[in-house]
Design goal:
heterodimer, A: mainly beta, Immunoglobulin-like, 2 helices, disordered N terminus, B: mainly beta
Chain lengths: 562, 547
């Protein structure tokens, strides 16, 4: 039985703006079935792509929508039409080929056709394939806004307001920053153009009257004495998670449906500011020491921007960092000199603290050698990339012609697990070993301090897989399926996974495939799956197809959609 | 014994004359308190929860209560202390002086800072805070659709050192609803400039392909030039709304390449290509730079000058080419040529031994280049020049400038001459071109004369005055001298010659570098001659500008 024409995958969550990405097929099997009996929409000189843009919430046609059409391989060359009152658009005289279709207007998100994460469905036109009467659903933009007031019920201006989003991305659910703004003179902030999803709002601010002076007495870490002696201006606001928690585990998520306007107001209450006193290496010099205390905002994620803090020097040999609310911090100290000294420490700050780092250059240094598998010299311009799997923060280092690379001491590389990759076209990592770090597949675990030496063997000649996703029932091409290429031990080799969405003719492309052994599979409604979870993925893996990709190999497979 | 001390409040708008300290005549053992209120200077309403600080020897702070009242206890007697208040939403005391636009600062009203003498009879203090002004609005297309990410800038003019200068007060961008808002404004007249907007938009009717379009920068209420613009008048505490409707114009693609550069190799070149519009040369639109010295831009139809400014290790280059864009225009050749630096050379003619003084200071001049014409904001380049080797003056692009030449040891030297080719910079403006020319030649001499005098007023005592000294031979180089409490003043070393002398109670807001403005006061001017190594005396009438 044919499924209905024009239905979309209503249960999918469409994401926000298009990124440059591979385009893969959409659920156009349905439309093809509808138009198959009709003459193909070919004019004398080309084909037609037409349809109606409607609101994903009301289903009503939308006027004044800009609709963009561009060839998949030439995205800058776009044609644009603007819909009329009936929401209709028409591109005619379109040569055959694969096209990216996108639409948007003020108040609605700019999105690709049948968009999922960064994947979208390309429209394929050609003999026997037309694309008329498409129904292009776009989401109204959501808004999260609110007012920030202080303990006197007066507006707080210039508060830093951050928006985090909990999303399923690359098969795992994580909370990541998505936007940031500051409150205005009325204490108002606003995030607009938001895609439907789950959000957290976090506020970091300092009272306008706060004044920090270097504490004159040495704080006794375990007592709360001398609080009365401190100035009433020596206060700060804690980092607040909506609706008013100071710990991220108590943060309340905001569920935003398409077009929702959600209000999230805050009232900030000052707390005593905590001080960290740092001893500097040379007792008679304190200039040049810079301290960055970055609080942990969500599990594994440190706010890169320093919390409102102040660094003062009460006397030579020490620096006072004040204005800090209690919390978990990553403390980084830089003392530039003939040799830049870095020092990193995790700190659970609950009371005034003294740090005497000793400055025995504990900075995390990462260096190493890269050699080519075939013994040749590495080509010029090769870059080794480290990407933190939790924070997505990445750093790169250039490889010299004799194969050496070194990560700059200023690059922020806190303790954690990092994927190692070659950030150069056509090159891939063959093997990885390390001294001073624990190797897990293609990832390394570093401690945040000390020296780490990496040994990388690399090779050139990535592979490519083209193919068609076909339906299990009738072996006909299926659009909109999620195609996945999974290596063995995916948890430790996540960097090798390739993904695509099948196009309107069922075709897909997986490029930059590192040679090796994989399982190729396709899932019909894979966009809501936490497929990085091995338990979730296993049943699909069992029904997938084992493939071997060799260097420079090009393949064409038919994959049955599960 | 109780001393019957007179109670006095000294009202200040500048901190310069404050003398904080203790007075021995009060009882040193006693402690006193001081009470007061913080009020809105416009409405008179009390301001709760303002931070009030008292400084002078010791420091204390407190917050005003719900009725705007505050009190300090435990203040030592006999101290003269400064009381100041602040709160968000009210202007910082220093800000209220900077945006004159003709507004007098010596208004006679107490400001947000007050000096108080502590004692048993110290009266309650009132501190006035000036509420901030706000400009807000919305930019939209004629059909009502909002225009997002449009640059918004607020400019004001100010007379500073006798010259009209344009300053940027604030800038922001419209949000997704086309709205913008700028707070923290001092009272004054502001000009609002909207645009440019980096992102293009699309216009068209449903039946055809849409066209790429862009918004031309406009001044409120929607004109392309500053002369036709209407200023927004913002008074203290006022929120002014400024909405604009802008229509996008179709853009055409302009592309071309920069020629005439030395070969690049792997050398870093900092490059900037801009389009300066014929109608509104106050806004430059950036062009996209591409590899191979190519550039492109999408602009609405009109006449433009495409300008390239490049810095390479081999020197600076610059070029202009006029274009008239009425359709897509490709292959524009922008030829650049080396930009020779402007240079200056200083000689010192010493006729007698230097005065006893700080020998560590080397005699020299400070050159101040002020671009003629309106620039938003006005720019100024300061460059010190010492004796000896020729200096390369960086940062002075081709253009026309007024140049001020100020000796850094004015009690010893005066500027005898300043020549640039055949141009006398003491009287004329400086036109800087691109080619290498002879340096500016400046000569200092030490045989100047001194002028001292008294500012007199039939209206009573002269507390303070600013005296302008305008040499006949150097009308561009006006010297200012402050007269003290009894009207007495003394000039630095001046070039011998005839001078026009004018004295004002305040020069704030007076564009005295403009000859027309000076001529208006000619009936109050005094003429005097300064002789070589001489001492001249003069008496000048005070011109009152304050009511």
């Amino acid at each position: 039985m044919m499924t209905q024409c024009g239905t979309d995958s209503a249960d999918s969550r469409l994401r926000t703006a298009i990124q440059r990405s591979t385009l893969i097929a959409a659920s156009w099997m349905l439309l093809l079935a509808c138009t198959f009996a009709q003459p193909p929409g070919a004019s004398q000189t080309g084909y037609r792509i037409s349809g109606t843009v409607v609101s994903s919430v009301t289903g009503q046609p939308l006027p004044q929508v800009r609709v963009f059409l561009a060839r998949v391989e030439a995205r800058e060359d776009q044609q644009v039409v603007i819909t009329g009152p009936d929401g209709r658009f028409l591109f005619d005289n379109v040569p055959k080929g694969k096209y990216a279709l996108a639409a948007g207007k003020p108040g609605f998100l700019m999105q690709g056709f049948e968009e999922h994460e960064s994947y979208s469905s390309a429209i394929v036109v050609g003999p026997g394939l037309s694309a008329e009467d498409l129904v292009f659903r776009i989401h109204p933009a959501g808004v999260i806004s609110g007012q920030i007031a202080d303990e006197q019920n007066e507006p707080v201006r210039d508060a830093q307001v951050m928006l985090f989003r909990s999303r399923l991305q690359e098969g795992t659910r994580s909370i990541r920053p998505t936007a940031q703004t500051t409150s205005d003179d009325r204490g108002l902030y606003r995030f607009a153009t938001l895609a439907p999803g789950t959000y957290f709002v976090v506020v970091s601010a300092r009272p306008w009257y706060a004044a920090y002076t270097a504490s004159r007495n040495h704080p006794k870490p375990d007592t709360n004495q001398a609080q009365e002696a401190k100035s009433p201006l020596d206060v700060t606001y804690p980092i607040v998670y909506y609706p008013g928690a100071t710990d991220f585990s108590q943060a309340t998520p905001l569920a935003l449906a398409a077009g929702d306007h959600v209000t999230a107001d805050f009232t900030l209450t000052p707390v005593r500011s905590l001080h960290i006193r740092v001893r500097t290496p040379k007792p008679d010099v304190n200039g040049g020491l810079s301290v960055m205390a970055t609080p942990e905002v969500f599990e594994g994620f440190n706010l890169r921007l320093p919390v409102s803090q102040q660094t003062t020097s009460s006397k030579p040999g020490e620096v006072d960092v004040s204005g800090l609310p209690p919390g978990q911090y990553n403390l980084q100290l830089f003392f530039p000199g003939r040799r830049t000294i870095n020092y990193t420490q995790e700190l659970d700050l609950q009371s005034d603290t003294e740090i005497d780092p000793g400055f025995n250059d504990q900075s995390q240094t990462i260096s190493g050698t890269l050699r080519m598998q075939d013994g040749s010299r590495p080509p010029p311009g090769v870059i080794v990339v480290l990407k933190n799997i939790t924070s997505d923060h990445g750093a790169g280092a250039r490889v010299s012609r004799d194969g050496k690379f070194h990560f700059n001491s200023y690059q922020f590389l806190p303790r954690g697990t990092y994927e190692v990759a070659i950030g150069t076209q056509n090159m891939f990592l063959v093997s990885l070993s390390a001294i001073g770090a624990h190797v897990r597949g293609r990832a390394i675990e570093i401690g945040g301090s000390g020296a780490t030496q990496l040994s990388i063997v690399a090779s050139q000649g990535i592979g490519r897989i083209d193919g068609t996703a076909v339906s299990r029932d009738d072996a006909k091409p299926m659009a909109g399926a999620m195609v996945l290429l999974v290596p063995s031990d995916p948890a430790n080799n996540a960097i090798l996974i390739r993904r695509d969405q099948s196009d309107s003719d069922g075709t897909f492309t997986l490029s930059s495939v590192v040679p090796g052994y994989y399982t190729l599979l396709a899932i019909r409604n894979g966009w809501d799956l936490e497929w990085m979870n091995p338990v979730v993925l296993r049943p699909y893996l069992e029904r997938g197809e084992p493939v071997e990709v060799q260097k420079r190999g090009e393949y064409n497979f038919k994959v049955t959609v599960q | 014994m109780k001393l019957n001390l007179p109670v006095w409040l000294v009202l200040f708008t500048s901190l310069a004359a404050a003398q904080l300290g203790s007075d021995q005549s009060a009882n040193p053992e006693a402690i006193y308190s001081l009470a007061g209120t913080v009020e809105n200077s416009v409405t008179g309403e009390p301001i709760p929860h303002a931070l009030v600080e008292i400084v002078g020897g010791s420091e204390q702070n407190t917050f005003s209560d719900a009725g705007g009242r505050f009190a300090f206890d435990r203040l030592p007697a006999g101290m003269t202390m400064m009381v100041a208040a602040r709160k968000p939403g009210f202007l910082n005391p220093l800000e209220t002086e900077s945006n004159s636009s003709g507004v007098s600062v010596n208004s006679g009203r107490p400001g947000s800072q007050t000096l108080v003498k502590i004692g048993p009879d110290a009266a309650p203090v009132t501190i006035y805070l000036i509420p901030e002004g706000v400009v807000f609005g919305r930019a939209q297309k004629p059909d009502g659709e909002p225009i997002s990410y449009l640059t918004v800038q607020l400019f004001y003019s100010q007379i500073s050192q006798g010259r009209k200068r344009w300053n940027l007060m604030n800038s922001t961008q419209t949000n997704e609803d086309g709205e913008f808002r700028m707070a923290g404004l001092s009272p004054g007249k502001y000009y609002l400039l909207l645009g440019p907007r980096l992102q293009t938009t699309w216009i068209g009717t449903p039946a055809q392909r849409a066209r790429e379009a862009a918004y031309r920068p406009v001044f409120y209420p929607g004109v392309s030039d500053l002369a036709s613009a209407a200023p927004l008048e913002v008074s203290a505490g006022q929120q002014v709304e400024a909405d604009l409707s802008l229509s996008p114009d179709p853009v055409f693609r302009l592309s071309g390449s920069v020629v005439g550069l030395p070969p690049a190799d792997a050398v870093e070149i900092w490059q900037r290509v801009q389009l300066i519009s014929g109608t509104n040369d106050l806004v430059a639109l950036p062009a996209e730079e591409e590899p191979g010295n190519e550039f492109q831009a999408k602009v609405p139809a009109g006449a433009y000058v495409v300008r390239a400014n490049l810095d390479t290790p081999q020197g600076s280059f610059r070029g202009d080419v006029p274009v008239n864009v009425q359709s897509d225009l490709a292959g524009v050749t922008l030829a650049v040529a080396p930009l020779a630096p402007l240079r200056a050379e200083l000689t010192i003619e010493q006729t007698h031994a230097p005065s006893v003084g700080d020998r560590r200071t080397v005699a020299g001049v400070n050159l101040r280049f002020l671009e003629e014409g309106v620039r938003l904001p006005s720019t100024e380049i300061n460059f010190p020049v010492g004796p000896g080797a020729i200096s390369n003056i960086t940062g002075v692009d081709p253009g026309v400038y007024a140049v001020e030449i100020i000796p850094n040891m004015p009690d010893d030297f005066y500027v005898d001459s300043a020549q640039y080719g055949g141009t006398d910079l003491l009287r004329e403006t400086l036109t800087v071109g691109q080619e290498l020319t002879a340096p500016i030649h400046i000569a200092l001499r030490d045989d100047g004369g001194r002028l001292s005098g008294t500012v007199v007023s039939d209206g009573g005592d002269v507390r303070q005055a600013t005296v302008l000294l305008i040499a006949d031979r150097a009308p561009q180089q006006i010297r200012t001298v402050m007269a003290g409490g009894n009207g007495q003043f003394q000039s630095p070393k001046l070039a011998p010659g005839d001078y026009t002398v004018l004295a004002f109670d305040s020069v704030a807001g007076i564009e005295y570098t403009s000859p027309e403005v000076i001529n208006a006061y000619s009936s109050n001017a005094t003429r005097v001659s300064v002789t070589t190594n001489g001492e001249s005396r003069v008496s000048v009438n005070l011109i009152r500008t304050q009511k």
